[in-house]
Amino acid sequence: MRISFIGSGKVATHLAKAFAQQHQIVQIMGRNPEHAKKLANQVGAQAIDDHHQFSSEIDLLVVAVSDQSIATVVQSISAQLSEVLIVHTSGSTDIKVLSEIHPNAGVFYPLQTFSFERAIDWTETPLFIEATKQHSLEILEQLANSLSSKVYAYSSSQRLSLHLAAVFACNFSNYCYDMAKQIVDQQKVDFSLLYPLILETAKKATQYDPRQVQTGPAVREDHNILNMHQHMLQQANRTDLKEIYQIMSDAIIDRHHSKF
C-alpha cells in the first residue's frame, strides 16, 4: 500500500516505521517540520510542509494528530483527496468526526502506550478498525493483519470504552508509580526495590480478575495501617497524596465490603 501521514509525533512515528517494513510511506507532514523531516528520512518518504503538496496517488492517509485537531486537519485536505481513505488513530474520537467531512473515512486505533524511547511489539498490540465503507474496512483489516495478530472491528462507542479503561489501567497506574517514587525519594530509598512488586501486580492483573487479587490494608479494612499512612503523608506535608490515598482506600473498601 501507498501510505502518507499527517503527524510526526509518537503514534505517527511508531506506525510509519512499522508500515514501512511492508508498505511504501509516501509523504509525511507534521506540525513541526524538523520532526516531519526526521521521520520521513527514517521511512524513506518525502517531508512536506503544506497540505497542497499531498499526492492523490495514495491508498491511505493516516491522520495521527491531537483529538481536537482531527476535524480541522481533515477539513483542509478532504476535497484534495476526495477518493482516498482517510483514517484517524484516536481511541476517543467518534468516526463521525471524519465521516461528516470525508465520505471515505475510517479509524485505525492501536491500544498501546507510545514513547520514543521504547520499541513496540506490534504482534501483541490490539488494533481496532472501523470504516464507513465495507471495502475500506477490508483494506484496514488487511493492513492491521500485516502488523498484529489481534485485530478487532469495533464501533466508536466500544473503542471509547476501551480508551477510558486504558486511562485507568495505564495513565493513572503510571501516576501511582510516580507517587510511589516521590515517597521513597523523600527518604532516599531506591525506587527499583518496588520493581518486582510492580511487575507481579501487572502480571496478576492479566491472569486473573483484578477484583479477586486485590491486596493491601484497604481490602483488609486495617484502619490502623490506613491511619498511620495518612499521618505519614500529613507529616511530610503531602496533603495532595493524602487525599488521593483516602479516595482510593475508600473506593477499595466500598468495592469489596459494600452490601450493594
Describe this structure in words.
It holds the Pfam family DUF2520. This is DUF2520 domain-containing protein. One of its GO terms (molecular function) is oxidoreductase activity. Keywords: Oxidoreductase. Residues 2-89 form the Pyrroline-5-carboxylate reductase catalytic N-terminal domain. With 260 residues, the protein is α/β, with parallel strands linked by helices. The protein folds into two domains: 2-154, Rossmann fold (3-Layer(aba) Sandwich), CATH 3.40.50; 160-257, N-(1-d-carboxylethyl)-l-norvaline Dehydrogenase, domain 2 (Orthogonal Bundle), CATH 1.10.1040. Helices cover 47% and strands 14% of the residues. The chain is built from nine helices and eight strands. The protein has helices spanning 10-19, 33-43, 70-77, 96-99, 134-145, 156-186, 195-207, 223-235, 239-257; strands at residues 2-6, 24-29, 46-48, 60-63, 85-88, 105-110, 127-131, 151-153. It has an eight-stranded mixed sheet with strand order 3-2-1-4-5-6-7-8, with helices on both faces. β1 (2-6), α1 (10-19) and β2 form a beta-alpha-beta unit. The chain is elongated, with a radius of gyration of 23 Å. The chain starts with a strand and ends with a helix.
